Amino acid sequence: MERxxxxxxxxxxxxxxxxxxxxxxxxxxEKGRRFAHRFCITQCTVGKKIKSIGKELC
Length: 58
Hints:
With 58 residues, the protein is an all-alpha fold. Helix content is 81%, strand content 0%. The protein has helices spanning 3-18, 22-31, 33-42, 45-55. It comes from Cytobacillus gottheilii.
């Protein structure tokens, strides 16, 4: 995929699913920003999808 299209796809997914995410906000309040970010990357299905899309940029 073209670099620009990959970035647009990731942005689209984040705008649709991640903006205002209850789980991220809950974890951020309870366990901190770092934990919430790590949760999104390693355990959230949307975060895993974004991570796989990001690997296409390399």
